[in-house]
Inverse folding.
């Protein structure tokens, strides 16, 4: 698809034969996971466009892209098109998102930069109304933006009369969100593990962003992320963010309502709409974390709230385990905090951990994970280095794989005890059963080490937009299963070795996660210890994919597979049949027809004939061997037989000679 | 004749019971009948045969171990003597003529030489027979080995180790 190499009137790539992506960068629109470039409409439209080329190792939000494609609203950058393009700078394919380009520039270059503040009197018309409208539209599509922050807001026009929200699909939800605009519980999670979230998260981010727009600079810049979270916990988000700054009086109510930490008390979209419509609402009060009468000393620091203490435990995991197991925590909860229910839950968790059949270290980890969830039920699952909400595990796993870091920390989250701890410590919701079933399934995949399972299967099962990471097809950016075989075909044509298997762990897991038809039998055959069964399973799987999804011709892949079928041929006993099959295989392999190749090599009639012939040949061979044994015995012991024959022969010869002599003499004498 | 009778019921090394070439009883009846006839009608022939066929008689008694040697010796012994017997029968069938012929020694020499040839034939024949039989067996074995090799080439070496059910049953030790 790429047709150009530089920006002088040419372009680097073309999406869907229309959108011409040039090499001219648009740094204002670039994000941590995507680079922006000037884009032209090949059909001649004058609408300015920007293309975001997403980092191929990061899964983008396909669900968001599907929803955004149909949304046109003043407060949102309009998504024109998206798809995969050949991207020369990466020397591989990548996802391109084409947006209508706002012309007024970015509001805030970085969270630490200063910018022209927006006056309180203009904020309603230029920012609140359009963005609230955008959030309303997104909510109708069941989507949370999760990237509402001043650095992702643009003036829609050069006249700077209204603001639009930037892209939200080029990264996992809330991946680039700074702590200040995220709720406490979301900020506690790893940026990639925050999950899709909800409109409540967007409203919080919107409230924090409004305050920053009013200030013209980033707030609380002296605090690092951890300090800011602690400050939000101890003082409440509104106080932690606003501090001593001034806010126009008519906006205080809105910002306070949106920055309420309790999700149930936080303003909803409806409340915001009512406020925009002029209806006054009672002021929300930030719920401050309950404080203990005396502190709990841990690692030399006294903690007075359970959420703070949970954060401290997670930061010093190994030191926290004996403290929790000793019962000190339970005692403190009862005596200093009067949190009887919480103390009971902690006590029960400690007792259960003592009787756990798990290995000690695993049981301790599960205990501390559960205790942290008891102390802070809104927080993500925290297990040693992992901090993630269940619906964000997939994205976090994807980013971990992309970074090449250890995935074991995430794999531990799939332990049943951890999942149960998460579900046990929060109020039941509609999606719990589905979530529980999904996590259980992931744990099953992880438990199986065979091809098509393991952490790779979990990676693709939880990330719809994760391209297949196999080195064989990584360049082709395969998201859709229908593109896998063509990508493998290209890889096979380019392969140096004609003996390389076209199915590795990533390809198998990708197929397992993306197909809707049953391929368990093929997968188990691939894992078979017999090379014949294994190769046959591989061919069967590829043939099934071609039969179901096409394309009809896969010359490169078929050629590669034809070079790998020796074990199948060797499975036939008849040498002639092997030669015939090898010769007959050339035709379908030349056509790229894997289905015909499989049918040829796994013909049940041919196999039956081969088996019968083999049995018969074996029987004949053994009969001959018996006869040869008999001959050998005769050879070593044939004197008697020879003597007997000799006696008869000598008698017959003597008689013959005698008779001939007598007759001859008789004739002569006449 | 006793040597012939003695062969009855003997077993060879291969376990087979040796069958006499000619039934001993038949031979006895035939021999006695011949002697009777000769004594009654041709005492001249009896004289010639009695002296000329002595090697055969000797072979019959000497060949207890060499079964059937008297037959080979006998036939050729008779062939050697036949010239003079025919002369006796066709020219002068008298006792004096028979005696005169015996006195020339030639009939005795020829008859005995022919008998010796019969003995030699008997002794040489086993070696020839052994050679012929061994060659035949080797040819059959080579033929079978060739067929086995063809089977292995057509199938694979597995047929030499894989045993179909029928073969396994056949080779199974009997209870």
């Amino acid at each position: 698809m790429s047709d150009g190499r530089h920006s002088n009137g040419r372009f680097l790539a073309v999406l869907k034969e229309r959108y011409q992506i040039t090499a001219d960068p648009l740094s204002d629109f670039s994000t941590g996971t995507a680079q922006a470039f000037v884009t032209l409409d090949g059909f001649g439209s004058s609408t300015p466009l920007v293309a975001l080329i997403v980092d191929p190792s990061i899964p983008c939000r396909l669900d968001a892209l599907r929803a955004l494609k149909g949304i046109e609203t003043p407060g949102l950058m309009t998504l024109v098109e998206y798809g995969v393009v050949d991207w020369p700078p990466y020397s591989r394919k990548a996802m391109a998102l084409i947006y209508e380009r706002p012309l007024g520039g970015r509001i805030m270059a970085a969270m630490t930069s200063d910018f022209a503040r927006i006056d309180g009197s203009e904020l309603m018309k230029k920012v609140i109304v359009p963005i609230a409208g955008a959030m309303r539209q997104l909510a109708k599509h069941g989507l949370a933006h999760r990237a509402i922050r001043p650095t992702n807001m643009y003036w829609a026009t050069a006249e700077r009369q209204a603001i639009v929200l930037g892209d939200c699909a080029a990264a996992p939800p809330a991946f680039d969100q700074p702590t200040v605009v995220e709720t406490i519980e979301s900020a506690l999670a790893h940026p990639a593990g925050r999950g899709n979230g909800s409109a409540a998260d967007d409203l919080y981010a919107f409230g924090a962003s409004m305050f920053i727009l009013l200030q013209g600079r980033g707030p609380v810049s002296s605090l690092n992320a951890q300090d800011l979270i602690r400050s939000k916990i101890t003082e409440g988000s509104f106080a932690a963010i606003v501090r001593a700054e001034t806010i126009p009086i008519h906006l205080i109510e809105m910002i306070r309502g949106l920055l309420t930490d309790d999700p149930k008390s936080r303003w909803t979209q409806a409340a915001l709409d009512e406020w925009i419509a002029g209806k006054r609402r009672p002021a929300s009060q930030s719920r401050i974390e309950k404080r203990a009468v005396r502190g709990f000393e841990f690692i030399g620091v006294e903690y007075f709230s359970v959420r703070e203490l949970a954060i401290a435990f997670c930061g010093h995991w190994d030191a926290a385990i004996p403290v929790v197991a000793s019962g000190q925590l339970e005692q403190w909860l009862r005596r200093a905090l009067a949190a009887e229910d919480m103390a009971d839950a902690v006590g029960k968790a400690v007792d259960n951990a003592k009787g756990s059949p798990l290995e000690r270290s695993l049981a301790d980890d599960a205990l501390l994970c559960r205790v942290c969830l008891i102390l802070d039920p809104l927080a993500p699952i925290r297990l040693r280095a992992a901090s993630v909400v269940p619906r964000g595990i997939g994205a976090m796993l994807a980013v971990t794989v992309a970074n090449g870091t250890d995935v074991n920390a995430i794999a531990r989250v799939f332990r049943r005890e951890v999942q149960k701890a998460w579900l046990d410590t929060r109020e039941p919701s509609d999606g719990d059963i589905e979530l529980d079933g999904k996590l259980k399934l992931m744990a099953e995949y992880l438990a199986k080490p065979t091809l098509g399972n393991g952490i790779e299967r979990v990676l693709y099962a939880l990330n719809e937009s994760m391209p297949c990471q196999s080195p064989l097809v990584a360049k082709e950016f395969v998201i859709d299963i229908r593109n896998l075989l063509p990508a493998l075909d290209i890889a096979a044509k380019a392969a140096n070795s004609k003996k390389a298997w076209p199915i590795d762990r990533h390809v198998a897991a990708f197929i397992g996660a993306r197909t809707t038809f049953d391929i368990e039998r093929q997968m188990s055959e691939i894992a078979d210890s017999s090379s014949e069964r294994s190769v046959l399973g591989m061919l069967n799987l590829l043939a099934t994919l071609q039969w179901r999804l096409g394309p009809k011709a896969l010359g490169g892949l078929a050629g590669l597979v034809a070079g790998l079928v020796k074990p199948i041929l060797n499975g036939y006993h008849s040498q002639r049949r092997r030669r015939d099959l090898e010769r007959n295989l050339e035709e379908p392999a030349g056509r790229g027809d894997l289905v015909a190749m499989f049918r040829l090599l796994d013909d049940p009639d041919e196999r039956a004939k081969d088996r019968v012939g083999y049995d018969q040949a074996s029987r004949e061979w053994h009969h001959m061997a018996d006869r040869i044994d008999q001959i050998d015995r005769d050879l070593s012991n044939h004197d008697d037989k020879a003597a007997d024959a000799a006696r008869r022969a000598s008698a017959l010869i003597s008689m013959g000679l005698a008779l001939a002599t007598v007759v001859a003499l008789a004739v002569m004498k006449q | 004749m006793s040597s012939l009778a003695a062969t009855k019921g003997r077993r060879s090394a291969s376990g087979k019971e040796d069958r006499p070439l000619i039934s001993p009883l038949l031979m006895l009846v035939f021999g006695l009948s011949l002697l009777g006839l000769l004594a009654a009608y041709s005492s001249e022939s009896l004289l010639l045969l009695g002296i000329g066929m002595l090697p055969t008689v000797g072979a019959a008694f000497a060949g207890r171990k060499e079964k059937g040697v008297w037959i080979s010796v006998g036939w050729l012994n008779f062939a050697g003597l036949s010239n003079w017997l025919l002369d006796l029968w066709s020219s002068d069938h008298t006792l004096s003529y028979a005696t005169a012929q015996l006195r020339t020694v030639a009939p005795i020499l020829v008859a005995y030489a022919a008998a010796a040839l019969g003995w030699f034939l008997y002794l040489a024949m086993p070696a020839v027979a052994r050679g012929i039989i061994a060659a035949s067996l080797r040819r059959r074995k080579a033929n079978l080995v060739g067929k086995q090799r063809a089977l292995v080439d057509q199938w694979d070496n597995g047929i030499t180790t894989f045993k179909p059910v029928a073969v396994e049953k056949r080779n199974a030790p009997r209870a």
User: Anything to note?
Assistant: Chain A touches chain B through 48 residues (CB under 8 Å). Residues 1-8 of chain A have pLDDT under 50 and may be disordered. Chain A is about 50% helix and 10% strand.
